[in-house]
Amino acid sequence: MHSAEMNSLKKEKKGGTRPASTLRHDIFLILAMSFLACCGLIYEYLLAHYAGRILGAVESSIYSMIGIMIVAMGFGAFLAKWIKCPYNGFVWLELGIALVGSCSILIMAVMMAVTYTLPQWLQSIYGLPSSITTSGGFIESVKVLSFYTPFIIGFFLGLMIGMEIPLIARVREHVHGQHLTHNTGTIYGADYIGAGIGAAIWVIFCLRHPIILTAITTASVNLTVGLLFLWRYRSQFLKPLKLWLGHFVLVGIVITLGIYGTGWIEKLNYALFQDKPIYSKQTSYQNITLTERYLGQGLPQVYSLYLNGRLQFSSSDERIYHSLLTYPPLLVSARHDSILVIGGGDGLALRDILQWQPQKVTLIDLDADIIQLFSGKATDATAKINTILLELNGNSFNSPKVEVIIGDAFIEVEHLVSSGRHFDTIIVDLPDPSHPDLNKLYSDFFYSRLYSLLNGDGAIAIQSTSPYHARNAFISIGKTLASVNFITEQYHANVPTFGEWGWTIGTKMGKSASQRIEDITELPLVDQWISKAQLNAAFVFSPNFYAKEKEVDVNRLGSHLLYQYHKKSWGKQDGVFFSHQ
Fold first, then answer.
1. Which residues are catalytic?
2. Kind and range of the H or E run holding 303
3. What is the CATH number of the domain that holds 32?
4. What's the confidence (pLDDT) of residue 580?
5. What distance lies between CA 427 and its chain's CA centroid?
6. Where does a domain end: 270, 299, 326?
């Protein structure tokens, strides 16, 4: 603090220049603390959410980020005592938080894009074939740095956020000119309430908008609080010109990010895809990206769907996957009058199911936006994209036989059970259990509810990740289905985009699925990817595949066991750089 400011502080402590009324100061400071606490909580969720998205290990990334930021806040609270002038310190602090907060997502996106594109760039420079990957000390160092970048940003942001409460408390006592007995309780009360409001804002509003806009808006609040504080207590600053100039520069940065930030982030995210992105949207639940690959004149383009950076299908071979998912359970079911599909928001499984002429197909999916997109009704998609997607799924969502239920399958299945619904075939086409929220849809409890919905002579099929890359996760899905009294078997096939992929099939009584297929003399429906010999072979695994089956456990509801199996198996390949279903 400058000497003039120190003299002023001493005089006010003696009661010489106390404000006529401190009520307005209290209202301003307490409201400021509430707004800042709201911002702090949003920053925690923001960084945790984005780190989980780009690093892949969602649960551990989120919890690690929040833990790191809380610890950093503790260090910040300790360090605040070294700031001599609480007024200057507070304003500089808000400038720092606004700068780091507004640029955080952009910095992380740049690091991830560099990590992904640098090896490709080096391959191009040195003319290396695609089979040779550029790696080594420098490349590995960049990868390590990019991995830790979100947590480094979170630490420094948390460090600064932790200084806010001590500085506000000091300013308030300075304004009152005395030690305040309940000062800490008042400030923390405002902090807790503001944090609660921040959590509500994050859930209700932030998840529905581009993440960079959330960062910019939150930083703007810090910037505004700093400006108001600078103006409100302008008499306490001896040389405020640098602070005003700092705010002026930061306003320009925030405005620039507001205008161009979304486009920059989109381009940086697009750098993570090998093919050209033609559509991208952040919904309340996931990021949807469609890509296009041009193979050459006269050849059909290849279209791929990515959800949160993970490949869901490629038009080059999706028919192999969907034929293996739908054909076996429909083949071994006695009837096809009523079919239940869980997931499958792209309508591709639905397309294949409708060939069996069912009376009704009920599909449950969480995200209304993806249903709109693949129904050709997305207002933000071009006419070309709508045409492409409708051709891919055969306009299946617009069939009068299809009933779509938007909601959490875990809840909606319970509603179906309560209403007494039954189905001849159930097909579960969910993403891999790469997120804790998906784990419950692979649990024994959920499968027991599906058992209640399936008719006695019906069959159920579940996409079950890769038996090659995630053997324990694959086996656990089979054991979990068997634990609720399904006659369970597993089968596999090669899908070029995914590699070796697997499915689990179950019947309720009588013969197993493979035995029923063996008894069939002629397949009732022609499919270019299905033959009886191929189906019989799909149930055959290598002699030692199930050798350690006893070491794999059933995925009980709440255990997150399958999620852990999947996470451990895929390892580093579970992020945006290695896009699997």
1. 429
2. strand 302-307
3. 1.20.1250.20
4. 37
5. 24
6. 270
